[in-house]
Write a structure and sequence with these properties.
The protein has 263 residues and is mainly α. Helix content is 48%, strand content 6%. Among the domains are: 67 residues, no CATH class; 91 residues, Arc Repressor Mutant, subunit A (Orthogonal Bundle), CATH 1.10.10. It contains seven helices and four strands; from the N terminus they run ααααββαααββ. A hairpin with a 6-residue loop joins β1 and β2. The chain is elongated. Belongs to the DASH complex DAM1 family. Keywords: Centromere, Chromosome, Chromosome partition, Cytoplasm, Cytoskeleton, Kinetochore, Microtubule, Nucleus. InterPro entries: DASH_Dam1 (IPR013962).
């Protein structure tokens, strides 16, 4: 330890950098430099200018962001409008005036055909009656040369199979309107995005409606070559999902029952 009269050791101070504000204020090269804290005034003024420039730049970025947001919203609305316009106006397969005239003429012809009575059946000729009655029965009376021929009873006519009753023009129109309501409940691709798929689903709905209450198997709905099994299966899946058709496999085979739209 140093003695009582010795000078105590002191840690040397760090050398001040030449660019520091303190060195600037203490430098002899600048005799007019401010003393004390006066050197802070020009530095704070420069800092204030830079802060104002930074704030102006941030405000500019904010305005740019708002402009981009407004443009994005307007452009998205424009794209949505173009999509809706293509689905409602741009329809290349829309019916023309000739189509309406042909449909009206066809409806009138069907109404006239339904109003006319069916033609009467022709009466059977004598040869047909003989063929229908069949051969006569022969009875032996004991005499070798005498036979008594007894007429046989004519066979009862067989009932004719009745075909499906033809729908009137009004019934066909009502069925077409109902099928249109069913199609409107299906996804967009069945409602006009794909005209071929729309026609296929109508071809599947029609026999199901005609056999309402009866189970219909999948292969009974196939109409080759246009309506194949894959198309029928796709249409049945979407109809079952919309609960317009009910699928039942409790009997060991898959059957489809027409349910229709809920009342």
């Amino acid at each position: 330890m140093p003695g009582p009269g010795a000078t105590p050791h002191r840690t040397p101070l760090r050398r001040i950098s030449q660019g520091s504000l303190f060195a600037l204020s203490r430098s002899s090269a600048f005799p007019d430099a401010p003393h004390g804290l006066g050197f802070l005034e020009p530095a704070m003024s420069e800092l204030l200018d830079e802060a104002e420039a930074l704030q102006a730049n941030v405000e500019g970025l904010k305005g740019l962001s708002e402009s981009l947001e407004t443009f994005n919203e307007a452009f998205a609305s424009y794209l949505y409008m173009m999509t809706m316009n293509s689905l409602t106006v741009d329809w290349p397969q829309e019916p023309t005036e000739i189509s309406y005239e042909l449909a009206k003429r066809r409806a009138e012809q069907e109404a006239l055909a339904a109003a006319q009575p069916p033609p009467p059946e022709p009466e059977p000729s004598r040869s047909d009656k003989t063929a229908t009655e069949g051969p006569a029965e022969t009875t032996y009376t004991g005499d070798a040369t005498t036979f008594v021929t007894a007429p046989t009873e004519p066979e009862a006519p067989r009932p004719k199979k009745k075909g499906k009753p033809k729908l009137t023009a009004k019934e066909k129109k009502e069925r077409a309107v109902y099928i249109e309501k069913v199609v409107q409940t299906l996804p967009l691709e069945f409602r006009g995005n794909d005209p071929t798929l729309r026609r296929h689903v109508e071809m599947v709905i029609t026999p199901l409606m005609e056999r309402a209450g009866e189970g219909v198997r999948l292969h009974e709905l196939i109409v080759p070559p246009d309506l194949n099994q894959a198309r029928v299966n796709k249409c049945l899946i979407v109809l079952v999902n919309r609960r317009v058709v009910q699928k039942d496999n409790s009997t060991g085979q898959v059957l489809y029952y027409w349910v229709g739209l809920p009342a």
